[in-house]
Amino acid sequence: MVFDEAMAQNAAVQYCDDQGDEQGLIQSFVQVCNFLYDNQDRLSWRSRTNIPSVQTDEGLRLLAKKYYSAYRRSDFPIRAGTIPDDMVSIVMVEAFGYSKEASDRIKVEHQEAMVAENCVGALLERYLDSVLRPNGWHWCCGSFVKAIDFIRRDQNNKWLVLQIKNRDNSENSSSSAIRTGTTIQKWFRSLSRTGRTNWDNVPPLMQGFNLSEQGFIDFARAYLAKEKAKMTI
Amino acid sequence: MVFDEAMAQNAAVQYCDDQGDEQGLIQSFVQVCNFLYDNQDRLSWRSRTNIPSVQTDEGLRLLAKKYYSAYRRSDFPIRAGTIPDDMVSIVMVEAFGYSKEASDRIKVEHQEAMVAENCVGALLERYLDSVLRPNGWHWCCGSFVKAIDFIRRDQNNKWLVLQIKNRDNSENSSSSAIRTGTTIQKWFRSLSRTGRTNWDNVPPLMQGFNLSEQGFIDFARAYLAKEKAKMTI
């Protein structure tokens, strides 16, 4: 039995308007499902019941819905709705000598910095997708492929697999062996010890596309400006 | 076969000076090892080789060394040696409208707030130990008991098991069933949605010892002042 690409494509069509920047996303979704067909243990699904199968129309629709929702969800950072822990401010005062007033300001800014950090990780994937998608890579958007961010096939039809991290000290995934015998190639954008970026060391598979820190900054600024404009409408 | 308490006690004596606030720690170490003897799957050890056994003198010494090192290690927050990611500052400017100067200040304060957060979690365990130890509880210090922070036996000699979190949205452990058939009782100190503390809802096992937020604050201030004084000597 082989993977039914036409069925996956039909599922994607239900959710894709295939306009603007969604060009090529149908093909990416189909290949992500194809990869999951070959590596079923790579599916990550929160609910223990109703786990989608890439061999049924119903399963593919569930996955397509998640894929496109994640793609369209804004990654503009939203201030947290939680109330900061006062004890953190007490430690800031006692340990680092901040005034009560400064520690109150810091607790708000600290929350914003945390959501900004998450935003950087999300924007990094979006930037890479914007450059890599026209070059044959498929983004594993929607967080249902375990520990893998981008896939493509090589000339021998074997899967090539990339995992992206924003920093060398980001939490990393435990397993790197996958069933097809390929290993996950990992790349991180920045070095926590020096603050330097790592664009000079992208794996061979990602080379030749002019990926750069300045490209990332420009992409991020444009994305945030666009999303901000949407919010103020 | 039963657990050899005398052998565990001998191992602890090698590392304990049994002065000042280490009173009772030998007994706590012995009981933590006794618990691991009954629940061997609860041992958490970073290295895959040389996993300590609570049935050998060598294993018990390894555990005792880790137990006492962790107890004596200062939890005073230390500024991180890492360089903040400039991209986070760019997002702070673009998304929240901070000036470049403000975002530079925030990135330092944000790092301090992160280490202060970790410190709060560590001090919470120390505070609970200071109150619960004289009341028959044993602190699982040293992070080698998986997802469990305090243990004791009930009148029927069954293990009672506590897991402590600083916040309701702290990362939580996956498994709560343990081999002896008891379940882990969980308690968190603060509610992220309201900012309120949760001392009125300590589990029955922890009641009657006057645990309170004010007690925690007083303990934390005294601890930090003492550790700060040590550093300036």
Question: What does this 3D model show about the protein?
Answer:
Two copies of one chain form a homodimer. The first copy, chain A, has 233 residues and is of the alpha+beta class. Helices cover 45% and strands 9% of the residues of chain A. Chain A has a four-stranded mixed β-sheet. Chain A is globular and about 70 Å long. The termini of chain A are far apart.
Largest interface, and how many residues on either side? A-B, 44 and 44 residues
Q: Let me know the number of strands of chain A.
A: 4
Work out the radius of gyration of chain A. 20 Å
Order of helices and strands of chain A: HHHHHEEEEH
Strand order of the largest sheet of chain A: 1-2-3-4
Strand residues, percent of chain A: 5-15%
The residue ranges of chain A in which pLDDT falls below 50 over 5 or more consecutive positions are: none
| Class by SSE composition of chain A | alpha+beta
**Oligomeric organization of the protein chains:** homodimer
Helix count from the secondary structure assignment of chain A: 6
Question: What's the main sheet of chain A like?
Answer: 4 strands, mixed
Short descriptors:
homodimer; 9% strand; 45% helix; 6 helices; four-stranded mixed sheet; alpha+beta; 233 residues
